[in-house]
Write a structure and sequence with these properties.
By secondary structure, the chain is mainly β. It is about 5% helix and about 25% strand. It has two helices and 24 strands. Strand 23, helix 2 and strand 24 form a beta-alpha-beta unit.
């Protein structure tokens, strides 16, 4: 258990220091908590003063030190006269700017004794909240059955490393993390038996991160992933109550997508997805009736759809190139849509042991891709094709 120094709100084991420049309570950049020498520039830079203070304070309380001559109505770069920023402003010590979030804002870094921040008790949550900071400088993990609430962490904006929540039992929502906008690495939410709501993550910009949701027994939906438009990998496995995955609708996935063993998903529809650099696997989904990726034109790796007892249809109408295809042991599958635009298959096609899928539909695919379609038999021989 982490301890608080007597009479202070500073953690003395994992976190150090409550000094330094304080972050403002208001997010609109009204100038509180700063040093007095910048007063000539005005809190919002609206006086047009010269020098380093002419641009005023940045949105989260850190001072941008790049001077640019005369300010103009509080422009964030200290005097560009309205020109658009192309790189981050320079921040004073203890603050950082992140181009993935905002070019004109400096965020207060949490002063920690060790690079990775770990919360194991509710007291740890409260102590981190008392630091009044916005950036976790490396990995951030929440891992304890004792934690019941994350309220108080609303000022956190950025996690530079991996973000994980594991092994909680009494944490039901992520309320308190509503201010997070960026994580630089993995986001792993695994093995949390009471967690049912992740909607607090709805402001996250998850460009090029890995998303993992596994073994969360009470998680019912992926609401909160609306901003996940470009990700590295996505995995959802073993979430027994997960039924609604509609909030996850990426445009591109650089590596892989995996849905497996989730107890209540009825449809997997990814309408905005255009390309996947790796593979897609949909397996052992007991209630899933439809897999639809109507806009995907490129799968760089394998497509594996297997062992889904209720699956009726697959829609890959725009697919033109794929690494390989394996569709097998889906007893109620009636159509794969004919794969009408498929032109290139890097390895092989296997469509077999789908007893409700008309063999004539598979034969039509095999006729166009005879070299690749090495295992395209064993489906419904007396099936009827349009």
């Amino acid at each position: 258990m982490m301890k608080l120094a007597a009479g202070t709100a500073c953690l003395v084991l994992a976190f150090v220091g409550c000094g330094g420049q304080s972050s403002r309570d208001e997010p609109d950049g009204d100038g509180g908590g700063g040093t007095s020498e910048d007063a000539s520039g005005g809190d919002n830079g609206d006086t047009g003063g010269t020098g380093g203070g002419s641009g005023g304070r940045q949105g989260s309380g850190g001072r941008a030190e790049n001077s640019g001559g005369q300010g103009s109505g509080g422009e964030a770069d200290g005097g560009t006269g309205g020109a658009q920023l192309t790189e981050c402003v320079t921040c004073e010590p203890g603050y950082e700017c992140f181009e993935e979030v905002s070019l004109d804002t400096c965020f207060k870094v949490c002063e920690t004794e060790v690079p990775n921040v770990e919360l194991h008790t509710q007291q740890d949550v409260d102590a981190l909240a008392a630091l009044d900071c916005e950036v976790i400088g490396n990995e951030f993990s929440i891992a304890s059955p004792d934690i019941t609430s994350l309220l108080g962490l609303e000022k956190l904006r950025v996690i530079k490393g991996e973000f994980s929540i594991t092994g909680t039992t009494n944490l039901t929502t992520l309320a308190g993390l509503d201010g997070l906008v960026y994580a630089g690495d993995h986001i792993s939410i695994n093995g949390n038996s009471g967690l049912s709501d992740i909607s607090a993550l709805s402001h996250m910009k998850t460009a090029e991160v890995n998303l993992s949701f596994s073994g969360n027994a009470a998680l019912a939906s992926l609401d909160g992933l609306e901003g996940a438009k470009k990700v590295l990998n996505f995995m959802a496995t073993g979430n027994q109550l997960l039924s609604d995955v509609s909030a996850f609708s990426p445009e591109s996935v650089f590596e892989n997508i995996l849905f497996s063993g989730n107890g209540a998903i009825e449809t997997i529809i990814l309408p905005d997805l255009i390309s996947v650099g790796g593979g897609v696997q949909i397996s052992a989904e007991p209630l899933c009736t439809a897999l639809e990726m109507p806009s995907v034109d490129y799968l760089g790796g394998p497509l594996l759809v297997g062992g889904n007892p209720e699956l009726l249809e697959i829609n890959l109408d725009s697919l033109t190139r794929v690494g390989s295809i394996t569709i097998t042991e889906n007893p109620k599958l009636t159509t794969v849509g004919g794969l009408p635009l498929l032109e290139e298959v890097d390895e092989m096609i296997t469509i077999t042991q789908n007893p409700s899928l008309p063999q004539c539909e598979v034969d039509e695919i095999a006729a166009r891709h005879s070299a690749a379609c090495t295992y395209c038999t064993g489906n419904k021989e007396d099936g009827v094709c349009p």
